[in-house]
From TrEMBL:
This is AAA+ ATPase domain-containing protein. It comes from the Bacteria. One of its GO terms (molecular function) is ATP binding. It comes from Parazoarcus communis. Residues 34-212 form the AAA+ ATPase domain.
Length: 313
C-alpha cells in the first residue's frame, strides 16, 4: 500500500456546516498519516457521524464517502460482501435455470469490500460499532490492518470463473500502489470495546463545546448551510439559555442531554416563530421547546417536575 500521506491536511473549519476543534483536526491528520482507523466517541448529537462528512467535504471526497451502519446482528463480513442465498434458493426451484448451480453469481461486494479492492482515496465511516457482537470489532480490525480478505462463501473451485465474470476472485486485496481510505469508527459506549481493538485505533472524544463563542460559530455554520438568516442576537441569546438548560439537565441526571443538533433545530424554530432571546426562560419552556430539546419521556417529566417545584417555592 502507498503511504496515506497523499491526503491533504484536514483543517476542520472549511466545511459548510461543521466546525472541528484544532485538537480534533490534529488527531484526524495523525490517523491519516499513520493509516490507522480513528475511533470517535462522544454523546449523541455532538457530531460523531458528521465528522466523516466534514473530512470528505474538505478533502474533496464527498463522492467517495461510504457510510455503513452496524446492527446488533452484523458480522465483519457484512461490510465486505453479501451472499444472496435466498435468491439462489429461489432460482434453484426452476430446473431450467442453471445459474443456481454456482455460488459466485449471488455474491456482491459491499462498500468496504469495494474500497479495499479499488485502493482509491476515500472516507469510510463505520457507524455505531458497539452495537455488534463482541467479536465484530476485532474481526473488522484484522481486515483493516491487512486490507485484504477472503470471500469465505465462494468455493475455491469457482475462484477463476468469478474472477473472469465478476472481476474479483475469492481473495480480495488492495492494489500494490493503492491508497488506504480514511476510516472512522463511531461508538456510543453501549458496551466496552475489546482492548486489542482499542490498541489498533487512534482515539478522539467529541465533547459538547463549553465555549459559547465556538458554539455560536457551529450554529452559524449550520444555519448558513440551510439558508436560515438568523440574527446574531438570537443565536447568542439562545446559546446562553441553552447552556443553562443543559446545566439543569446534568443536575437532573437526564439520560439524553440536548446537544448540538438539538440546539440548531431549536434556534431555527425560534427564528421561524419570531421569538426573541430575552423571551426564553429555562424555567418556562414551551411544548415545542421541550419537543425539540428532549427526546426521552422520562427526561421531559423530570424537567417539568423541577419547573413545577420551583414555581411552588
Amino acid at each position: 500500500m502507498a503511504p496515506p500521506s497523499r491526503y491533504k491536511q484536514f483543517a476542520g473549519n472549511k466545511s459548510a456546516s461543521y466546525l472541528a476543534t484544532a485538537e480534533t483536526a490534529e488527531i484526524v491528520n495523525l490517523a491519516v498519516r499513520l493509516g490507522r482507523p480513528l475511533l470517535v466517541e462522544g454523546e449523541a448529537g455532538c457530531g460523531k457521524t458528521r465528522l466523516a462528512s466534514a473530512i470528505a467535504e474538505e478533502l474533496g471526497l464527498l463522492k467517495h464517502l461510504t457510510i455503513m451502519t452496524v446492527k446488533s446482528t452484523s458480522q465483519a463480513r457484512d461490510l465486505l460482501y453479501r451472499f444472496d442465498a435466498l435468491r439462489r434458493l429461489q432460482d434453484a426451484q426452476d430446473p431450467n435455470n442453471p445459474t443456481a448451480r454456482k455460488v459466485y453469481p449471488y455474491i456482491d461486494l459491499e462498500p468496504l469490500g469495494h474500497a479495499i479492492r479499488e485502493g482509491k482515496p476515500g472516507v469510510v465511516l463505520i457507524d455505531e460499532v458497539d452495537k455488534a457482537d463482541i467479536d465484530f470489532p476485532n474481526d473488522l480490525l484484522d481486515v483493516l490492518d491487512r486490507f485484504e480478505f477472503d470471500i469465505e462463501d465462494l468455493p475455491r473451485s469457482e475462484d477463476q470463473a468469478c474472477l473472469a465474470e465478476r472481476g474479483f476472485g475469492r481473495h480480495i486485496s488492495a492494489p500494490p500502489k493503492g491508497v488506504r481510505p480514511i476510516v472512522l469508527i463511531t461508538s456510543n459506549r453501549e458496551k466496552q470495546l475489546p482492548e486489542p481493538f482499542l490498541r489498533r485505533c487512534l482515539y478522539v472524544q467529541l465533547d459538547f463545546p463549553t465555549d459559547k463563542a465556538m458554539l455560536a460559530d457551529i450554529v452559524a455554520k449550520n444555519l448558513k448551510a440551510r439558508l436560515d438568516a438568523v440574527s446574531d442576537e438570537l443565536t447568542a441569546g439562545a446559546v446562553e439559555r441553552f447552556m443553562e438548560i443543559r446545566k439543569r439537565g446534568l443536575e437532573l441526571g437526564m439520560q439524553k442531554l440536548p446537544a448540538t443538533s438539538e440546539l440548531v433545530d431549536w434556534i431555527r424554530v425560534l427564528h421561524w416563530q419570531g421569538r426573541k432571546a430575552e423571551e426564553i426562560s429555562p424555567e418556562k419552556l414551551g411544548t415545542s421547546d421541550q419537543a425539540i430539546l428532549f427526546k426521552i419521556r422520562n427526561d421531559i417529566e423530570r424537567y417539568r417536575a423541577r419547573t413545577v417545584d420551583e414555581a411552588g417555592d
